[in-house]
Amino acid sequence: MGSYFSAERFINVFPKIISCISVNFHIVLWSMLLGTILAIFVAILRLKEIPVVKQILGVYISFMRGTPLLVQMMIAFYGIPLVLGNVFMNLFGINLNRVEPVVFVEIAIVLNEGAFLGEIFRGAITAVPALQTEAGYSIGMTGAQTFFRIVLPQAFKVALPHYGVDFVGVFQNTSLVFTLGVVDVLGKAKTLGAATGHTLEGYLAATLIYISFSLLLKGVFLFIEKNMKNGSAPAI
Amino acid sequence: MSFNVQSFIEALRSAFKYAPVTLELTVITFLVSLVLGTVIATVRHYRIPVISQILGVFVTVYMGLPMMVALILYNLLFMTFYNDFATALNISTPISEINPIYIGFFALILGQSCSLSEAVRGAFRGIEKIQYEAGYSIGLSKIKTLYRIIFPQMVPILLPGMQNSLIGLLKASNLVSAIAVTEIMTGALLPSLLYYSYLESYVAAALVYWIIGIGIEVLAHFAEKRSGQYLRRINSD
Amino acid sequence: MIELTGVKKAFGKQEVLKDVSIKVNDGEVVVILGPSGSGKTTFLRCINFLERAEQGKMVFGDKILDLKHVKKRDILYVRRHSAFVFQNYGLFAHKTALQNVMEGLTQVQKMNKAEARKIAEDALSWVGLLDKKDFYPAQLSGGQQQRVGIARAVALKPDVILFDEPTSALDPELVGETLEVIKKVAKMGITMVVVTHEMSFAEDVADRVIFMDGGVVVEEGKPGEIFYKPKEERTRQFLSRIIPQDAYVI
Fold it and tell me: In the beta sheet, which residues pair with residue C57?
């Protein structure tokens, strides 16, 4: 048993692996930023019920929700250079085949989040009682005023827990990126394992890192949610 | 744009051939996890001493572990320790004869049981205390009340979440490809080893997953319609 | 002066308003009574366009509007010169009582915050809730929420205040304090249209009572006439179910 796991090797390998967490964070932050913006558009467009747009968005959301992320990343990686390769070469002089794989990973996640978060936002906006909108109208506020000052802040509170869960989910999904050669936490564990012939310590380190950061992120969101509770709980 | 339709169709055929593996992984895991998850949730809901605390900590911590990491870790642990384990228990099956799909099942069931247990706990919170009291008041035991009164009312609350869980599981099953199990995606890739047509294979795989996902949505739609009957009010005046 | 004529509205196949014409003079308190389904709430909501009538004409002050083809600008005008008190209070859940009253003043009437705050505090104190100004709706009782809603309406100094069954959602012991505040509003001389079930309140406060049933106006007149000398059979039937028989002289 002793030869399989060595505390010394573990301590040796841990810092090297955890230093790669910046790759995971980079992916999560950029994807969530762009994904959230995309999702707001998707949610608003879906709520407006514009004929053709609604169908197209419906198909887009169904596809992103119904297919595995790994497959989506591969399609992005192989498909985008194929489809847009010429366009990018001629217009921008960029060779898509030379672009780092991490970019395609992020594109796939952004598109994914546009669909998932879009539905979360749409649900949250619909959850705000119609009475709130009517009250806004009744004092003479315009549609836009009512939406941004009355509905949106309340929808935000409804969406927050789901958004938090989704955010942690994206972080956990970065465990897939090593399949495209990106050197993140898991990727580093793999390469170190291959190089040294001792894989257990590395993967245990990765396990520890993922669990700790997931719990940390969950804690952060719980903290934010607790502080947003003003006005929801009765004082009586 | 050079998308080879021929290899796409080959990949599609191959993907469908391995769809049963994916379906097997998805459905069996779901059913087993539903039972396990309900047990965990029930124990925690009734606050059975010691066990609920342990389960509470376990579930919370375990849900921080991504499926991919879990699969790779379990696979590694299995490969590393199996031989010692087999000699100790006098099992004669060599490691090469054990289908890695069992590791897949293990990881998926463990993960799904945790997340379903959370969903069931949520559903428990949705049932008012008075339902329990009504059951006890007519003489039903705790257990009888649970499965005759409480569980049936939890079903309509759980259904929408179950649909999402099932589709999530369908997609998670894709990851067993990392531990040498051939499912829809790796199945679709088999022909491409000859033709270098990766994109066509991945698109084919996506299509098959998508179709199955839509199938699940349709089934869930019918289930929801039937289960919530007693909740629907009859329009008055 | 507000006058609606020939208002028609259907929800799907159900005709809720068949041909309703009601006039409200400045400073009048008009109470609309009727059984559920009579269309009285729908009619009220048509006035400030929370429901859109299919047909009808509206005179609002010096504006004449065709309810079928009304312009967004005119809807906004009516809403900015009227106020609505909801059955379920309609307070902005994420804002304090004070912020609720200030919202219309700062966002719609474009007052500066200090001025709006003064007016809002006066309004809250007028309904007896100044000490609760920093409370959120969820922390207030139903009656308190309703009074904040009334404060919000009054602070806007509208041409008319519309009340949609203001006490129907309240526990019985809270109805009294809310009605007292509404009576205060009436005493101020503001034009009011009130849909309610509270008969004695209607008798006290109304200048005119309108009885609606089945989507039409059945009868209207002074409270004394309607309650004690109804002309129509339908009115008599409705009242007999609500007012004890001996309080009622034919």
Answer: C5, C66
